[in-house]
Known about the structure:
Layout: E1 17-22, E2 25-30, E3 67-69, E4 73-78, E5 84-89, E6 97-104, E7 108-118, E8 122-131, E9 134-144, E10 149-157, E11 161-168, E12 177-188, H1 189-204, E13 205-213, E14 224-232, E15 236-240, H2 248-254, E16 260-263, H3 269-272, H4 282-293, E17 297-305, H5 320-338, E18 344-349, H6 356-361, H7 365-375, E19 380-385, H8 399-411, E20 419-422, E21 425-426, H9 431-442, E22 448-455, H10 461-474, E23 478-483, H11 506-517, E24 523-526, E25 532-538, E26 540-546, E27 551-557, E28 566-571
Keywords: Carbohydrate metabolism, Hydrolase, Polysaccharide degradation, Repeat
Family: Belongs to the glycosyl hydrolase 10 (cellulase F) family.
GO biological process, one term: polysaccharide catabolic process
Amino acid sequence: MNTFKRDNVLCHILLYSCFFLCAGFPVYAIDYDYHFITKCLEEPLNPQYSGGIAKNPEINDGLNGWTSFGSSKIETRTSKQGNTFIVASHRTQPNHSFSQTIHVEKDTMYTISAWLQVSHGKADVVAMIRTPNGDIPTGWVIAKSGCWSMLKGGFNGNFSGPAELYFESKDISSVELWADSISIQPFTLLEWKAHQDQSIEKTRKSKVKLQVVDHQGQPISNATIMIKQTSSSFPIGNAMSYHILTNTGYQDWYNPRFKLTVFENEMKWWETEPLPNKDDYHLADAMLQYVQNRSILLRGHNIVWENRDMLPQWAKDLPRPLLATAIERRFNSLVPRYRDKVIHWDVDNENMHFSYLESQTGENTVYYYKKAYDMDKGALLFLNEWGTIENPNDIVASPAKYLAKIEEFRTLGYNGTLGIGLQGHFDTPTIPYIRSALDILATANLPIWITELDVSSRPLQADYLRDILGELYTHPGVQGIMFWSPWQPQGCFKMCLTDNDFNNLPTGDVVDDFMRRINHQGLISSTNHDGYIETSLYHGDYEVIIKHQSFAHKINVAKGKDSSTLIMKLST
Length: 572
């Protein structure tokens, strides 16, 4: 161990074998380390998992285990504090760096972390894995000179055999790459599932101890208690189209399942102002009335969109002053109309991938958030991006870039409400990358919502959806999930949940099964000799019926400040 590296005193977790019950039999697993450090430090921390399967992870044994990747020159150096690290210099290609060969096992999840620095300025650096099937990115960091920044990522082991870890940055002109505390930790599928189960018990459920007493306060033994969950504290919703206004089959399928929605297109600018200065809210208003009559909560999507292609046709080529005026009118027309009627606003959609409005008007996207917040302080305002958890190749909206965008908002003086919107338009998911991305984003201490979840049509579409849902729901940072599967007779955007007769497709079965599994369908138990029953319940509202004398109670199970058991006394 390099004694000059700093210990993460606050966030360091001891690694030990933990016991879980998974798939009906015990599994011993190393705890997953959800921690991520956002600060750029003078010296790197010790490697997660003591480096895992990485050889010489702290560069304490010279270059043992490390080789040059490409034509770069590699060497070790030592800081003033006595810390040794590896350096790649004389780089002429983005992938010229240092590398290590590892053995990958099929059906294994891998998490990667490292501490990076560059010799000048700052640069986007990605950890890559070269496999027989091609090179795959695993995680990004914005590395800086003068301090060490943490990279975190992951990849699926979809083959067995040798692979090569290396690092890549397009900034090659005289920029050296430095690295230290490099970790590669494998987890079996059972271990990964065990982490999810453990997270559910910690973040989605609470231990509850109920005591039944008579009118004199004396415990009643052998009383039968029926516990039924009436609502969940974890929001799950689905987008809807205007067809729900007239199609009773759509209504009958949708209404029992979802109490949270977002309109697919009907609130978007091109729908509500198809001609300049000519508002048309008849569909949005009718749909609002529909959801309000059924106590369905609504997300507002969206106020404006940075993608020029998503503007009303008449607004796409407006000169700068007229476009700015049109945007002002859009805000003044839409937001007050639905103020206090939506719980969220997607304010300036996809402003990391696109910047048309910003480039044409000269207004930073923060201006629109300040304006929306001044107009509706009751709604949570969201950034809303794709690619952040779906695509490890997306450098524009990588988790590191997302955090940088949030920091930009604060630097430019936005202090209003802010949520992290992750669209979640998946093709083939990389589950360890999803988890690592959420670990990084969770450090912002802002609400994280999956706003537009779907999986494109492909073999294993339903299986992928099941795996993604399992990862998203069990991550402690995620506070809500929205599916993007509004029914259209001609077909859905990417993923339908039913056919046109509203019979479930395999994806619909996955959603139904998921929603059943995260809710208690009913629990019957008897009190012990002291009148108690103990159980673990998902957070939400419950009806508790004591059959001893047919008394009913309503209780709420919420996440507490610690893991202590919630104790309630129920009288007959």
